[in-house]
Amino acid sequence: MTAGRPAVVWGLVAGHAAATGRRVSVADVCAVAAGCAQVSGAWVTVSGGREPDFVMCVTDPVGEQLAELQLTLGEGPCHDVLASAAPVLAADLGDQASGRRWPGFAAPAGRLGAGAVFAFPLSIGAIRAGVMGLYRDSPGPLPGPRFGDGLILADAATMLLLDGFQHDGNGAAAADGGRPAAGQSPDLALHRAEIDQATGMLTEQLGVGVAEAFARLRAYAYAHDRRLAEVARDIVARRLWLHDDPGRDSGP
Amino acid sequence: MDAELLSDTFVDLADTMVADFDVIDFLHMLTDRSVRLLSVSAAGVVLADPRGELRVAAASSEAAGLIELFQIQNDQGPCLDCFRTGQPVTAADLAGPDQQRWPRFAAAAIRAGFGTVQALPMRLRDQVIGALNLFSAGTGLLGPADLRVGQGLADAATIGLLQERNVRRAETLAEQLQAALNSRVVIEQAKGKLAERAGLDMDQAFTLLREQARSTNQRLTDVARTFIDSATADFPPPPRG
Predict the structure, then answer these.
(1) How far does B97 lie from chain A, in Å, by closest CA?
(2) What is the per-residue pLDDT across A122-179, written as a single tens digit (0 to 9) for each?
(3) CA B203 to CA B183: how far, in whole Å?
(4) In tens digits, what is the pLDDT along chain B, a chain of 241 residues?
(5) By CA distance, what is A126's nearest residue in B?
(6) Could you tell me the strand order of the sheet in which B53-59 lies?
(7) For residue A151, which residues of chain B lie inside 8 Å, CB to CB?
(8) Do A89 and B172 touch (CB under 8 A)?
(9) Closest Cβ opposite residue B202 in set A91, A197, A204
(10) φ, ψ of residue A68 in degrees (nearest 5)
């Protein structure tokens, strides 16, 4: 187990963005996923619900065709991810299990040049933002550390999609050591019960869905230059209340 | 130790694994039973996140969850040492000799009202996948018999995770750990929503969600997901059909 792996992976994403001179985007996550996960290509499809809506970015033509094939057929590992909200790892599209599970997808995907497809949900609990797909031209399992990197990259893509690229401050990401927003180290900004609890509380306070509640929580932390976990703690402790008109937020 | 409670616990644990199994619900039951059986103040389970960190999966109370989180954040404490070595780790007196070993953790544990911590590894063959941690208000350690039961409960937690892996047909342990940790996020989000709607604290909200799952024969994660996904959901949701 490597300490601080999320920070390393986020740093790679920010570094890729800096090299292209653009703000950090899902395209950077895809590019890093294709390299860092030792696969042939990557794509991200965006979805608000249980059906994929559109292809947001791809790293190469084969990836694009694999993404679109699944959208067209309504079948494939990425499609299954939306139903289960768990990763789906198809290590060998040519084997019998894959042929049975995806009768319309497995063979054409193989002809396109995919030996293995690994699909990760872009989700945080009940929040669903889409799917990240990876493919390799040869079959074989995704090694454990690469699976962990896939999860971290899926977290990064999820955060970027939920932000909707609204934070102009992301331009400072590279200089800031790969932080997506001021004062929030991405590796610590996720996966704490208080953040999840506060998100749930905000669905009620703001009368919005869980994805928007999380976006509002992050936006508040960003706007007030505070750590996400601190803001969440104040909300859970009922020291801070957000209002659907941000001017009427009340708290410390 | 209460022998009847002990046998009841293992019967209940086995029952839980038969149908409609929910791993987070199971781990919560395990922490609750650990507290009652071993006469400790609180218990918590941490799991190895495939992202390369430890995460709290279940705790008998919010306070126990927070002190677990404190160890993870500060990269210090018996639970982390237990996870790294795969061996039981004991802090018999955090106000005394153990202060030097884990100074930041000892201070936080004392503030939270805990004087003793015992961490038991969750092992699968040569892999450590997490730890069961037992917190007590006073000083003094569990006796050898109690410790054996504690390790039995930690092993049951490991079996529970593997059981869910079979149910879900996940291919790797890493996938299963990820699924379990994501279930916990869904449950925490639903706790927040229910706490806000009904004016409850988080422990009360969890109890309500769990009672709803029990009384309707649904998995806790499914109850939580339905509630958090629905814009208008009353709780408990009206019966279907």
Answers:
(1) 28
(2) 999 999 889 999 999 999 999 888 999 999 999 999 988 887 634 333 333 333 333 3
(3) 17
(4) 788 888 888 888 887 777 678 889 999 999 999 999 998 999 999 999 998 888 889 999 887 787 887 787 778 899 999 999 999 999 988 888 888 999 999 998 888 889 999 999 999 888 899 999 999 988 778 888 999 999 999 998 888 887 766 655 656 788 888 888 999 999 999 999 999 999 999 999 999 999 999 899 899 999 999 999 886 656 666 555 4
(5) B186
(6) B53-59, B42-49, B127-136, B116-124, B89-91
(7) 50-51, 178
(8) yes
(9) A197
(10) -70, -35
Q: Do B188 and A125 touch (CB under 8 A)?
A: yes
Closest chain A residue to B173 measured between Cα atoms? Answer: A144
Whether B104 contacts chain A with CB within 8 A: no
CB of B220 closer than 8 Å to CB of B187: yes
Tell me the CA distances in angstroms from B15 to A34, A238, B218, one per residue in order. 44, 39, 15
Contact residues on chain A for B186, CB-CB shorter than 8 A:
125-126
**Under 8 Å between Cβ of B122 and B132:** yes
Q: How many CA atoms lie within 13 A of A123 on its CB side?
A: 31
What's residue A174's pLDDT?
30
In the block, tokens 């079979």 appear at B166
Binned at pLDDT 50, 70 and 90, residue A37 comes out as: low
Strands A41-46 and A127-136: antiparallel
Q: Which of B51, B182, B184 sits opposite A6 (nearest CB)?
A: B51
Q: How large is the C-alpha radius of gyration of chain A? A: 19
